[in-house]
Write a structure and sequence with these properties.
Elements (H helix, E strand, L loop, with lengths): L24 H9 L3 E2 L2 E2 L14 H8 L21 H5 L6 E7 L2 E6 L2 E5 L33 E3 L10 H8 L4 E5 L3 H6 L7 E4 L4 E4 L2 E6 L19 E5 L4 E4 L8 H9 L4 E5 L14 H11 L7 E5 L13 H13 L11 E2 L22 E3 L6 E3 L8 H4 L7
Helix pairs in contact: 6-7, 7-8
Length: about 400
């Protein structure tokens, strides 16, 4: 049979679309020119960070598969999601700034007439595959199509619980712009986002979109989606400034002294969105506990409590050994002790930081009764009843040494 050829083997053809794409060409050349790229990888501020569980695999497995604590990592009842509607978001915020936490790290920020969507994850699982991986513990508050127009989508880094293939593909069909850390644009281009709609930034670089300025700021984390993690995409936190308001989104990060520098350069902030979940003693360098999250917020505010703190990165996916309700309880206690306003909205509940912020412990209705009001004491590391007696006072929050 003439003219027949066996197909050429192309490894890239077997690569799942959710793995994205590795940077190449001019994008890779720009990465190599970055002052934060050295020895073939991006470097963390404050020195190397442990990106894999520390300690022995046996110790980790003992904690992770513990029969008593494992059930507490998910809600026992139905999570009380606010049924967000387009009408909730159609009315402009009276103060010029409104935040709507959609769960995990996804937040819609309406700031000075513009709409910014941080780390949108509408998928059912944070995984490259639809049949395995951490599954949502509550539904999204409203369909992505019902969100209304978005001026810019901001991505903190390329992990699956922050950069979601089906969500990006849906948004690629709109006219929104995307602000992403250096290298992450390769994933988005593979998924259908036109290069002209990308604003791809290194730390301390900024982009202007419709009168607001988005600045990529340092974070202490890591990256990677595929089986071969090249560490060729950057991770970032974000400072966003409008004509009247300033907000900050931490992405994923361990605590480090650089929060003070970010606050000095871009703050103080009317509101911060701070990662306080999926922490563990097995990876202390790359995620923050609620106590560390509060410390970061106060650093960003110049050393004193101020603005509103919205805890993110908890409640939606089971990603760590701690109890599902623990981040909310712990954050409520340390914030109350420090005199810091903390917003605790149900997923999908809009609020204005300059107004009355939601503060009711909504998670207690769904949490396992043994852990609904218990969390580690910031002072001792032991479990304590949900009171503020053991929390650090505000004067110490910004003075403790850098973690990790």
């Amino acid at each position: 049979m003439t003219g027949f050829r066996l197909p050429r083997f192309e490894p890239s053809a077997l690569r799942p679309a959710a793995f994205g794409a590795d940077p190449s060409g001019e994008r890779m050349a720009r990465i190599r020119r970055s002052p934060h790229f050295r020895d073939g990888v991006f470097q963390n501020p404050g020195g190397p960070a442990r990106t894999r569980p520390s300690g022995s695999a046996r110790d980790f497995a003992k904690v992770y598969f513990d029969k008593e604590t494992r059930p507490r990592r998910a809600p026992q009842g139905t999570v009380p999601v606010h049924a967000t509607t387009l009408a909730d978001l159609a009315r402009p915020p009276a103060t010029g700034l409104r935040l709507t936490w959609m769960g995990h790290s996804s937040v819609l920020a309406e700031i000075d007439g513009r709409r910014v969507l941080f780390d949108p994850v509408w998928g059912e699982r944070c995984s490259p595959f639809p049949f395995i991986g951490p599954k949502r513990l509550h539904p999204v508050p409203l369909p992505l199509a019902a969100l209304g127009p978005v001026d810019v989508v901001v991505i903190s880094h390329d992990h699956y619980d922050h950069l979601d293939l089906p969500t990006i593909r849906a948004l690629a069909g709109t006219d929104t712009l995307f602000a992403v850390p250096l290298g992450v644009g390769a994933h988005l281009e593979r998924w259908g986002v036109a290069p002209g709609r990308l604003r791809e930034l290194d730390w301390q670089e900024a982009a202007e979109v419709g009168g607001i300025t988005l600045t990529a700021t340092p974070a202490r984390h890591f990256c990677g989606r595929g089986l071969r993690n090249t560490q060729h995409t950057l991770w970032a936190s974000w400072a966003v400034a409008g004509e009247e308001h300033r907000i900050y989104h931490s992405g994923d990060t361990g605590y480090f002294s650089g929060f003070r520098d970010i606050g000095a350069a871009h703050g103080p902030f009317d509101a911060t969105m701070i990662q306080v979940g999926a922490y563990s003693e097995f990876w202390p360098d790359i995620h923050m506990t609620p106590e560390e999250g509060l410390r970061a917020h106060v650093d960003l505010q110049g050393g004193e409590p101020g603005g509103a703190l919205l805890p993110i990165h908890w409640g939606t996916f089971n990603l760590a050994p701690h109890a599902w309700a623990e981040p909310g309880e712990w954050m409520k206690d340390v914030a109350d002790a420090a005199g810091q306003a903390v917003a605790l909205p149900r997923p999908g509940e809009p609020f204005e930081p300059a107004g009355k912020v939601p503060s009711a412990p909504w998670w207690r209705a769904a949490a396992h009764p043994a852990t609904a009001s218990r969390h580690p004491s910031p002072a001792t590391g032991a479990e304590t009843a949900g009171s503020s007696a053991a929390t650090v006072p505000a004067v110490r929050v910004s003075e403790e040494p850098e973690a990790g």
